[in-house]
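User: Modeling request: complex.
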Amino acid sequence: WERGGRLRHPWVFFSNGENNEISRMSHVMMSPSRQSNLELAYSLSTYSVIGAFCTEDNVPQCLLHINQELASLGLPVCIEASSPEGANLNAVPVLNAVYELLQIHRRDMCTLEEMEKEQMKKSSSLDLIQMTNSRLKDQLELSIREKSGLYETERQLQLKLKTLQRCLKGEKDEVQKLQSIIASRASQYSHDAKRKEREAAKLKERLSQLLIDRKDKKLAIDVLNNLGRSDGKRSQWRTTKATASHEGEMYKFLLCDYEESQKSLVLENAELKKVLQQMKKEMMHILSPCQPSSRGATADEELAESDEDEKTRDSSRDTLDQSCEHAREQLTNSIRLQWRKLRNHVEKLDNQASQVLHQMESNKDMIPFETHQDEMERMRHEVQQCKEFIHAQQQLLQQQLSTSFDDETAALLYDCYTLEEKERLKEEWRLFEEQKRNFEKERRNFTEAAIRLGREKQAFEEDRAAWFKNHFLNMTPFTNRRRCSSSDGQSSLSIISEPEIRMSVKAHKAKASTYTTFSTPKSSRSTAAPSTTDLYRTLRLIPDCSSSMHSNQVWQESSTNGDEDIRIKSKSRGLHCSDLDIFALGEDDSLT
Amino acid sequence: MNFSELFKQSNQLCKVSPDGKYLATCVQYRLVVRDVSTLQILHLYTCLDQVSHMEWSSDSLFILCAMYKRGLIQVWSLEQPDWHCKIDEGSIGLVSSRWSPDGRHILNTTEFHLRVTVWSLCTKAVSYMKYPKACQKGIDFSKDGGYMALAERRDCKDYVSIFVCEDWHLLRNFETETQDLSGLEWSPNGCVLAVWDSCLEYKVLLYSLDGRLLSTYSAYEWSLGVKCVSWSPSSQFLAIGSYDEKVRILNHITWGKIAQFEHPASIDNTKAEGNFVLSVPELPHPDEICAPPIQIPVVKPDPDRANPKIGVSVLAFSSDSRYLASRNDNMATAVWVWDMQKMSLEAVLEQTAAVRCFQWDPRHPRLALCTGNSKLYLWSPRGCVSVQVPAEGGFQVQSLSWHCSGDFLILLGKDQLCLCYMDEHALVQDATL
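Assistant: Request completed. Predicted assembly structure:
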């Protein structure tokens, strides 16, 4: 019904007889914002409308409509009927239009295909992603299951641990119990043992008592004659004196033993002391000659110390026989001192020896270890560098040699060398691609601009057609009548529309040469023929994203401006008519 | 090496007099005294019953023959063959009898360790020592014969009594810090008395002659402890063999441990500490010397039986205190010889059979040992030798003892004996050591 509505409008306006207004209004109605709606409606209503789109009756309307449609598609084609009835159509523009449409269709198809491909790709990638997703989900599930399993095992282990701890506790308790049992048993047994022992002792006592009481006759000694003592002495009476003498003897015996052991200890001590003295003497002997030579700076202190030592030694020697303890202390002290010295000396000697050894190793140079290391490192580095250098030289030589008799390798090498160049080319290619893309963008912009231009031109042509009509009407003798009957222009519709169409065709024909001359009033300030670059420059001022919408607005504005302009023009018609005339004539000339 | 002909003996009762001149042997109820050099029978005494114990007096003038079953003791004199002495312990019974060091008194231990009776041969006097303890070694005389130590048990406590042997005067009586005293032994110089606890507790106590406690030594707790104790002849060392198969050596100054000898089943170079180890297997090569490592067969003891066969049970110092021989009961086939100067293992004498007896030569560092077969084994630092006893009728050496001069050995079989004279040449060689 939309299309019907759309189609009804012109009828309403035609009934008013205002041709100019009709055409203007229809253009207003055909604003691009509605285009998509229209197209949708068209596709929807193709089958809803009974009968074909075009019938014998509405050919001009159809034509008009198609023209409008084409114009909206940006095709500057004006299909016009070859006959006023509209039964036959001019083949060329139609074919052109069809061709253009086909082109558009093909392009669209291509785009569609590409889109489909893209979609396929997208869907396949989507599938892939879904698959991955599902796999990941599986993995997640698996890991969750694993986690739960681990949790379970942990729980079990903890349970086990708990039971084991309980067991341990039980065992510990058991052990404690057993230990207490053991302790109690032990005490019991020891008690029993003691009791038994006491009993046994009692029994023994009783037995011995019984034996004594019984006056055992058998218990006897039968000796032929008494023997003398082994030492020949007579036995002594047991007296307190004897007891005391026993004690004394015992102590004497012990004392003897202790004296003996002390003697041996003293002997040992003396031996050890002798050894110590000898050691000390030898140490002094060893140390004294090398003291001044090896110690240098601390020589004075050392000398003082040695003096002290000397003193102590002398004193120790003196007191050796006098006060054992004192002498011993002194001796040990001096020995300790000497020993320390000797140890230091030996350590020093060791160090020296090791140094000497090191020096021997490092070719008798007095180079410290660090510098030696550094030097070594440096030399190693140098050697490495030299090696690299030699290697490079060898390579170069080999390359030279190989290029002389091996083309293939040479090519390979050349390839290697041109790799960089290739890289550079690639870079350039990339730049070029970018430029191309830019260029494409520009072209697109340009196309849009062209479309807009076409529209503007159309508007201008319409203006011109209106002007021509007016002019024509003014020139005709029915000027007054025409003016009167302009309100009821139902019948004169065909007359009005005819030159308009003609003019548009004419304009189309003259497109190549007079493209810019039919510019909208806005852009008409550049009266000198502007080049595409100029156009481009002007268009470039508008941002790309909003260019189409803006241009539409511009177009709308321009169309409304056009209305005003036309009104102004109609007021100052007298001034412009000659110019237009000339222009029209010129056009006619070019046509003929 | 020469061997005498075989002589009869019973109960392995065969002893050389302390002066080394006579050899006394018991054959059933007869006592035979021979001249050592000629082996001629000098005296023949007839006892009242089969003799179970025989002992020379210290002056080699009297021989004590004890018949425990009858509770009887007979003493014979070499100088006066007609002289006789008979001691009857009566109904109380007799378990042990010994000479006092002076050779004029006899100490009898009665049944149940009721008492020790001291019989004087000079005065016929009898004295009693009450409460003697029944233990491994309850009585010990000092080497010079001056003192006697007696272990006693009263009121469930251990005491030691020290008597002066001259008149049996009680010199000291003191309580020992033992749970269950097992033995006591005088040091050879007679100044220190070593007392050790029963195997249930590892404890060795050292007392001075006057009863002061000098030192206490315990190697470990909660395990079977001391098995045997032995003084070195120099009194410098006290060797303690224990159930943990180790020998610990204490010194005589601080009474601390100075060495520990282990008895491992396998010996390698490190354990031998550079000394070669001798092995004396009987077959096929008697004098085979094995270099370490060697393996010694070990018999696992039965843990359920009392007195398990494990641990060091025999310790013997050589006369010069230079070497120590030991036997570990669960390695009965081996005798270990330790060097007391280096404090290291000197040799391991391994036999195919269990070692029955070993004894050091009283004069030289020479060890004789027997394993119950017909061979005699000798070890000295120079090497070892095994000698087949050239006697018909399968003479098997069960025990041996050295003559005090070290000139010959008495080899005791089951009911026979023979003398083994050392080679003069070997003696000369040994003398040069």
